[in-house]
Amino acid sequence: MSGRGKIRSGVVAAAFLALAGAGACGDAGFPTPRGGPQLTVELIDADEVAGTRLRPRPLKVNVPEGFKVKVRALDARGNVDTSYNGYVRMSSKPGAIDPIDSPDAEGRNLKLTNGESPEVEIRVTNAFGATFILAEDQGYAPADPVSKPPPACADGIDNDGDGRVDFPADEGCAFANDNTEEPGSYSTGATQPIYYALPRIADLRGLLCDAEGVCRGTGKSPYPREQLLIDTGLHEREDGSQRFDFDLVVTRIASDGFFVTDTKDGRGGYNSIFAFNFNAPPRMRVCDRLKTFNGTAAEFFGQTQIGYPTWTLEAWNPELRTCLVPEPFVLDPGGVLADTNNDGRVDVGADLPPNVGGLVRVITDPARNVEVKITSKFGAGKPEKSEQTKLYAFTPDASNCDFDNNGLIDFTAGNEEGICSTQCAVDPDCTEYSNFASRSTFRFYLRNTATGQAGAIQADATVSTEFKPLERKGQTIKSFTGTMTFFSGGSQYTIEARCPDDIVTDVNASPLPMDKACVAPRTDLDENPQ
Description:
- By secondary structure, this protein is mainly β.
- The chain has helices spanning 11-20, 46-49, 201-204, 416-426, 433-439; strands at residues 38-43, 65-74, 86-93, 96-97, 105-106, 109-112, 120-125, 130-136, 188-190, 194-195, 207-209, 215-217, 227-229, 234-236, 242-244, 248-254, 257-262, 272-276, 289-300, 303-314, 329-330, 337-338, 347-348, 359-363, 370-374, 384-385, 392-393, 441-448, 454-460, 479-486, 493-496, 503-504.
- It is built from five helices and 32 strands.
């Protein structure tokens, strides 16, 4: 090879050729070894920095870590190919890398001279599990895009004679500033595995903690659209045994997926998540514990979810262990939704974002001076607007802002439907009727009887045919429990009851403990997933 060089086969291809050659016999009756040129990536000081499978490096979220590597191009005999002069593309799987700070690099492209790169630092961010730093021959030779003459992929000439001219028509052009139209071999070399811990649910939901241990949620996953292995707490020991260090417990089975909670993550919430499965997961029950949990992190209208999940279960057996579903987080008036600044807008309470996906409860509790009732301003009639105050008068019979009766609220600037709906949302004792009519959601009015502080939270009770919120408007209830979901575009934190057990209307009764509520025992028809 000469010039920038070409590698005709990578590590994987070389291994395949070696296996293919195993069927051929030489003079002595042994397979004839075959191989080809390849890339290698040496991890410097590997014993000190790579970690091990049983003792991985601690997970770092949004914090880059540097690893020194050296890349070599080898010929078919395993010697450094001194004729190779060109760039290789560096990357990390999983994770991402920063631009390489070296005079022999252009962005994330590293130059090999006479078959070798200098020793450079690769800064890796958001790696997890077994991580590899990769080098790939993409046939990319970066050049100054305004150079004279211009780069080969922007000069209007068919330099490689394949009938295609320049980027993007010529497949051999990675970008317009590529100085060669010839494609690379796409051979790839990799370091030995660098072992990181796996992310827990709070990590993949974007929880960040500072050096003092103060944690805050970012509202966005650091692993968007990434295929994830999630830490379930089941870890292997040095002796080969396995043990749960913490628990990932199924808290709800939905028609399109399931909810799980990391019951021992004490970093201030963000420890629950919904896994979207298109349908109810077969053979899964509340109280089951996940042994493995994989899927793709995705943001669905502001809520982090796991898509295309796969899992293995430890089926709950009440004879072997207790049900590990945690007691719900109790919401107070100040922790939910209210116009706390009297500015005509609904403010998000601090207790809501951390508990999305988890079990929450509103409860009438005289000891805490908290009363919970269904909003009293909740009716199918159209509210009237005062010409003096420009405010709508909501009543028990009139909270319907769908003035044109098309089933939708028009939030276009200046539209009266949107103005009406916003005013109802600001009033914690109001449920906008058309939203209930189309989605069956309503609101609870939470009030501190000692201070007068009030707030509201949306709820969905469609799991119960007997509970009719419109007929109970203005009435105090004992408790309402469920998983909390979020849908962007307004005050859309919603408590969704899992089953009728989660709804207690009698103020003199008590909600069931979580190891009893909505727990369906297995039957003889269930296939044991173990």
